[in-house]
Amino acid sequence: MLIAGIPLGFLAVFYFYPLMKIFALSFMPEGTLSLVDLHGLVSTSYYLKTLWFTTWQAALSTILTLVVALPGAYVFARLRFPGKTLLQSLTAIPFVLPSVVVAAAFHALLGPNGVVNTWLMNGFGLETPPIQLNHTIWFILMAHVFYNYTVIIRIVGGAWSRMQSSLTEAANMLGASPWTAFRKVTLPLLFPSICAASLLVFIFCFSSFGVILILGGPRYATIEVEIYRQAVHIFNLPMAAALSLVQICFTFLFLWVYTWLQRRTTVALYPESRRITQKRPTTIRDRCILGANITIMALLLGTPLLALVIQSFTAGDGFSLVFYRALLENPSQSIFFIPPVQAIGYSIGFALIALILSLIIGLLAATFLSQEKSRAASLLDPLFMLPLATSAVTLGFGYIIALDKPPLNLRTSILLVPLAHTLVAYPFVVRSVLPALRSMPKSLRESAVLLGASPVQTWIHVVMPIIRRAIIVGAVFAFTISIGEFGATVFVARPQTPTIPLAIYRFLGQPGALNYGQAMAMSTLLMLVTAAGFLFLEKIRMSHEGEF
Amino acid sequence: MEAPREVILPGDGFFYFSEEVIPMNRRILTVLILAVSLSSLTGCSRENTTPGIETITVMTHDSFSISEGVVADIEKDLGIKIRFLKSGDAGAALNQAILSRANPLADIFYGVDNTFMSRALEADIFVAYESPLLSSIDDSLKLDRANRLLPVDYSDVCLNYDKAWFREKATSPPARLEDLIRPEYKGLTVVENPATSSPGLAFLLATIGHFGQEGYLEFWKQLRQNDVLVTDGWEDAYWGQFSAASKGNRPIVVSYASSPPAEVHFSEKPLDDAPTAAVLGPGTAFRQIEFVGIIKGTANVELARKVVDFMLGRKFQEDIPLQMFVFPANTSAQLPPVFERYARLAEEPVLIDPELIAKRRSAWIDSWTEAVLR
Amino acid sequence: MTLLRLRTLSKTFEREPVLDAVSLDVEEGSILCLLGPSGCGKTTLLRIIAGLEIPDTGTVYFDDRDMATVAPHLRNFGMMFQEFALFPHKNVLGNITFGLKMQKRPRREIRARAKEMLSLVGLEGYARRNVSELSGGERQRVALARTLAPNPRLVLLDEPLGALDKALRERLLLEMRDILKKVGVTTIFVTHDQTEAFAIADTVVVMDRGRIEQTDTPENLYAHPATASVALFLGFHNLVRGRIEAAGTMSTDLGILRLAEHGVPTGRDVMALIRPDGARIREASDQPDEGKTIISGVVKNCLFKGRNYHLELQTGTGQVLAFDISNESRPADPGQLIELILSPEAVVVMTDSLVEPFT
Would residue A516 count as lying in a domain? Predict the structure, then answer.
């Protein structure tokens, strides 16, 4: 089948082949299976504990994110209020920020000498800072909520805004209280998209790296962290590969359960125009929800981001543009100096290529999965998601040994950056588009076919416009993931063409207030680029909103 | 309410009120996106290769830097093009060089340090080169007798402290490693995890050198009692916990001897004095030496040798301090003023045989983890 | 002329046979109705004709051409779905012109055709309306206009009125028949509602369990259901089993039933239905019973229905038969023993008695 061929081919070449190569090299360095380096995997309980920690922190993070973000999804899906688009674009920003920068922001706010603690100590005459979050599980959980808030908002909110309001109204008329109507009607109908979003959040937290390393400190380690440690610092490649396999197998298991769940719960619904489903917050309940949400968002997302921006504009004691000016200068004449505009240009260029590739691969994969009901498809679905949960270092090493001969001599090619980004980004397109495709009544497509539309025409004229909202959501994710990706980029990027996150890390590699300030300034630019990209994609969507 | 309108409008206007307009926009958008991506792609690949000119590829780690002028000089002198490949941190970069040995990615590798050295030599990915410039390099830096890896720069990993903090608290800053476990230093120190950080490992080696293989764990256990904070990377320790550089509350951090001059050099306003200072007394620091080597299998051994010579030569060596904030290996290289003024070298730094490091590293890290983290 | 010929079409879903060797001819210009209970395979048959499903075996010939290799979008058939499947992202005009645009017809022609279609279905002035602003009946008409706009050679309607309420359904039914006849297009109409089928079809095909039970005009079908399942589906529940005997009678558990003309050979075991409207209460004043079929039983129930009485009679065998008795007769009270006279025309022998009745 051609539709499945392209995404499968892409996966085979850029995912499975490098992975097989690195596994083969790790387990069979001399051509025969050798597992001597793996005795530690079973002889101590350490790795079992790591796996357990990885799983429960991911589960807890997912639940917390859901609790915090579901009301937000309602607000963005159902209510109309001024500044909504801007607010929505702000929720996407944390997603792209490097974990070092986020850590710095949280430290500035909640660290021992941070704003909140200083304020509390002065206000209550305390001797020691009352909030001690540094290197605790709470810090990890908070950061995961901070990062993944937008995933729930976008995916669940998207489905919620498609849902006919008449359904809940009907439930209300039948005597259901708003809460009962939510539980009995809205929640079951949203279930597939809640599952999809939760899964993405779970996988992100399951393979969390930077947050665990920096905010959690060395006492906490996920499998991903352990893989990095084994591969890069201890040189135990077999162990790293074995842990990667464990990670992949577990992820596959979660994905498989999820896919099964989602197939069972999707209901075909006639989509409704957003004009009808959205209303102004007129009831007291809606106003309370809106108010509470904006407060939560301001506290959780707004203040850390604001702290970064303020730091980028503060030199010594007052307002200053010195860090921004420094971004444009190259006093040491380094050959690797990149003017910020160029770094932004590379980031956007890579992101656009990754976006287009992700859309092509993701839409083809989703179309295939939505049509195919065979057993093969239920295995392919989780397979398509695997790259999301594969350690960047394992895959990076795989590229080094696998893509070294023509026609795939891509090891040093600039193309490897958007290709690697695509690998992480297209699963998001699949996950945001597939529920929309599945919930689209089959008869719409069949009507088009019987009116003489070829499969391609049907796709362009009927399917795509109807699932456009979901496509844009996928595109936003692809764009932001590419803009913010660090783990894989650091392996495959060329020094002359760094992305913004790489540039930020470069500044943070050396001491000095100027370096730190420039990193903050660059982070602020990263936020701006992200927000601008988001608003641009949103604008495309809005320009068609009148029709549907 | 809008009254129902007559369907048929005169002329082609009929078609412009439904879906015809949108594909138009979409097409423009697609073209726009494609154009931008293509142009950025071609822009990116512009520096690829110039026909007829030999290219030497230098593989290195993220922290590597050098000035444009120096690269231009070498390219002009040798009539070649230099291409740099950065592949993650020092460990990741070296690992990739080893993994790709069947089909090397580069001609030269810059930045194997003495903690990774044995692994590199074991993997046998470098060819020996007796550079004439070795004569101007201090013998203590030459750890590979066969000269497969040639010392190119070095720095001392040591404690840094926040001068202002100690002035304010009227406490004396630490002078020896033993100071860290005194009660008045409780909760003041942040160190990096040797399992994930290269300065972290270097500092662990410093304690092993100072206290011996029998005594170092006892020191660390007491340090743990004294509420030492461990981070997984230098960035978090320095930018997240060190009081002189962040909102953190730890005035003592493990960093480099060259960090104080970097603080002066990278300050947003001119400074007369460094805000931090390094602890450099005997047996408190580990000397991290970086090496350069010619990768086995290069097609351009002759050219690669010339490039290595250039890297060990004065022009390159004098560029090193302000680019990477490490000391040049070549003793004849002139140090820049900020180094002359603020940078000090450790007295009697700890040096451990790279082979011993390679052999014991895992065990040391495991015992350390057991003693400090579990 | 036969436009569509179906030959031995079979289809199995997950090992459940849905269609079992179905063959059927459809005349050009006629309206044919596939009637049957849900799950009888009628929709599957329609979808196979449309090309949306591929039969396991069998062939669809359209205009004497095997359609197996013709993709559905190249067949130039029109199909209307139960829930109308209007494109929510297009307005009324966008929906109606969709098929024409797919065929890349000239703009002038599309414009004229759209106008023609809108007036055909009586929706002039609705071109710019959003689909979500339309009522159910309007949606149905837009769907019909959209189906007819590209001038399909065959129109397939899958329960096109199923989603509407009863009153609207009856009104639109006649309207739709008018429109289809005006256009003169060959139509296959799927429904589970016999009233709909009788009102709209030239030919009715009754299906059950993946097989065609009977193909006939609505009138013949009603008068002579060929099988027990057809009879039951049409609402005839007075079924009796018996044997054909010489001299135009049939022996059953109820006794000897006198028959009208029939073509079933003597000695055959068959089923017959007794029409509920073919009986009257035997009065004392009636002639002696010579040549008449008499059924006796206890009245179970007697309901006054205005024009007639609905009488349920429990016969000696325990079988309950239902009759509509003219309101001229005196009602009988429950528990009373009465006798009914059946006219020979009221007993319809079903030609295919091998089929067990379904309940």
Answer: yes
Domain assignment present for residue A428? The answer is yes
Show Cβ contacts of residue A179 under 8 Å, excluding neighbours closer than 6 positions.
Answer: none
CA separation (Å) from C16 to A251, B185, B307, C10, C12? 36, 80, 77, 11, 5
Q: In b/e form, how buried is each residue of C181-198, taking b as 16+ CB within 10 angstroms?
A: eebebbbbbbbbbbebbb
Distance from chain centroid for Cα B45: 26
List beta partners, residue C350: C271
Rounded Cα–Cα distance for residues B280 and B283 (Å) = 8
The tokens describing C313, both together, are 């009679």
Domains C2-230 and C235-350 equal at CATH topology level:
no
Given an 8 Å threshold on Cβ–Cβ distance, is A218 in contact with B231? yes
Three-state DSSP state, A174 = coil
Enter the DSSP assignment of A545.
T
Tell me the CATH class for C235-350: mainly beta
ipTM value, please give it: 0.80
Q: Where are the domains of chain C?
A: 2-230, 235-350
Upstream peptide bond of A407 is cis (omega within 30 degrees of 0) = yes
Q: Which domains does chain B have, with CATH numbers?
A: 55-154+288-342 (3.40.190.10), 156-286+348-372 (3.40.190.10)
B contact chains, 3+ CB pairs < 8 A: A, C
Give all chains having 3 or more CB-to-CB distances under 8 Å with chain A.
Answer: B, C
Hey, of C89, C111, C119, which one would you mutate to test binding to chain B, going by the most B CBs within 10 A of its CB? C111
- Number of domains, chain A: 1
Beta-bridge mates of residue C243: C251, C269
- Which chain B residue lies closest to A218 (C-alpha atoms)? B232
Residue A87, beta-bridge partner list: none
Q: Which of A391, A439, A533, A444 lies closest to A167 in space, CA to CA?
A: A439
- pLDDT score at A266: 63
- Using an 8 Å CB-CB cutoff, list chain A residues near C73: 449-455, 457-458
C-beta atoms of A452 and C103 within 8 A:
yes
The tens digit of pLDDT for each residue in B15-60 reads 333 333 344 455 555 655 565 555 555 444 444 445 678 889 999 9
Residue with the larger pLDDT of the pair A238 and B217 = B217
**B16 touches C: beta carbon within 8 Å:** no
Nearest-by-Cβ selection for B5 from C107, C115, C125? C125
**Per-residue exposure over A280-301, b if at least 16 CB sit within 10 Å of its own CB, e if not:** ebeeeebeebbeebbebbeebb
> The domain C2-230 belongs to what CATH superfamily?
P-loop containing nucleotide triphosphate hydrolases (3.40.50.300)
- Provide, as residue numbers in chain C, all residues whose Cβ is less than 8 Å from the Cβ of B4: 125-126, 128-129
CB contact under 8 A, A270 and C88: yes
The separation between CA B42 and the C-alpha centre of its own chain, rounded to angstroms, equals 30
pTM: 0.81
Residue A78, in any domain of the structure: yes
The whole-number average pLDDT for the span C24-41 is 91
Given a contact cutoff of 8 angstroms between Cβ atoms, the answer to whether B186 and B227 are in contact is yes
Nearest Cα of chain B lies from the Cα of A275 at a distance, in angstroms, of: 16
Inside any domain, residue A93: yes
Which chain A residue is nearest to residue B374, measuring alpha carbons? A219
Instruction: Give the span between the Cα atoms of A466 and C131, in whole angstroms.
Output: 13
CA angle, corner A305, sides to A299 and A307, nearest 5?
A: 90
DSSP state of B371: H
Q: What is the mean pLDDT of each run of 10 residues along chain A (548 residues)?
A: 82 90 82 69 80 93 93 86 81 80 79 78 80 83 90 84 71 72 80 85 87 82 86 82 89 83 66 63 82 86 86 82 86 81 89 92 90 76 85 84 77 84 90 83 89 89 86 87 84 83 84 86 88 80 50
